[in-house]
Write a structure and sequence with these properties.
five-stranded parallel beta sheet; alpha/beta; 17% strand; single chain; 287 residues; Cobalt-precorrin-4 Transmethylase, domain 1; Methyltransferase, Cobalt-precorrin-4 Transmethylase, Domain 2; 3 domains
Length: 287
């Protein structure tokens, strides 16, 4: 069966559309995103120069309006008025999902307050992309960008280290090397994934144990997405065999091999396998 990717001329509901844009490879944008961008009255852009390249590639002719962290409050009343007048407005950032460590949250909150329709589109996100290949816990805490002062970074890392989940944050490559000592101090025994240039030609994924982190190449540029693994879990319990375990071993010793008994008992037990083995051997010799 052949699928025709051409867009249908169906009516789009009026309101604000949150449209994720590629984090690197421009082909990662969805058909629906392009369709809505083409039918938008205005497209709010973090940087119109960057967004224009994307729009030109997909022949989007809609008007671009600058909407970044320095003017989004100033723009608010004008945009809300347009939305009240049944305009279709799309919000994009330079890369990824708007409102996630990018401008957009202020406008969304105002639309919620004014009961204006907001429609989110699924799409590219550096956060979920990095977590998906980390191999760490699927439960994660997303922090975003760190503050500018190192003392504040140190304070926040100490708080984050108490979380028993994967931790995701963004950081500039220039600031990363200064942060490494604080990572080692707070996340010893954990693992770390460093993602740079994701989905681009020179994409790179660096995996380390936090304790083994070394200074990164000084020529490294751009923003990094970092994922730190969850805490290592240790089995809780006594390091001595309980009377219940001993009785179970006595019952199993004539039916199972010592190796099988050791594996069964150690599954939910913190007792070293060597101790279990020695007790099994003792019981077997007594029989």
């Amino acid at each position: 069966m052949t699928v025709n990717p051409k867009f249908q001329n169906k009516e789009i509901k009026k309101g604000l559309y949150i449209i994720p844009t590629p984090i690197g490879n421009l082909r990662d944008i969805t058909y629906r995103a392009i369709e809505i961008l083409k039918k938008s009255d205005f497209i709010l852009c973090e940087d119109t120069r960057i967004s224009r390249k994307l729009m030109e590639k997909f022949e989007v002719k809609s008007k671009l309006l600058s909407n970044h962290k320095f003017n989004e409050k100033k723009n608010l009343s004008l945009i809300i008025n347009h939305l009240r007048n049944d305009k279709i407005i799309s919000l994009v950032s330079d890369a990824g999902t708007p409102g996630i460590s990018d401008p957009g949250a202020i406008l969304v909150r105002e639309c919620v307050k004014e009961k204006i329709n907001i429609f989110p589109l699924p799409g590219p996100s550096a956060v979920s992309t990095a977590v998906s290949i980390s191999g760490f816990s699927e439960k994660y805490f997303f922090y975003g960008f760190f503050p500018s002062k190192l003392k504040d970074i140190k304070h926040d890392l100490k708080l984050l280290s108490q979380l028993d989940s994967s931790i995701v944050f963004f950081i500039s490559s220039k600031k990363m090397n200064k942060t490494i000592p604080f990572l080692k101090e707070n996340f010893s025994d954990r693992e770390i994934l460093i993602c740079r240039e994701m989905t681009k030609i020179y994409e790179e994924y660096l995996r380390y144990k936090v304790d083994d982190l070394k200074t990164l190449d000084e020529n490294l540029k751009g923003e990094l997405t970092i994922v730190i693994s969850e805490k290592k879990r240790t089995k809780k319990g006594s390091l001595l065999l309980s009377e219940s375990d001993k009785n179970n071993i006595r019952k199993m010793i004539k039916k199972l091999s010592i190796k099988e008994i050791v594996n069964l008992i150690s599954q939910n037990n913190a007792v070293p396998k060597k101790k279990i083995y020695n007790f099994c051997l003792k019981i077997k010799n007594e029989a």
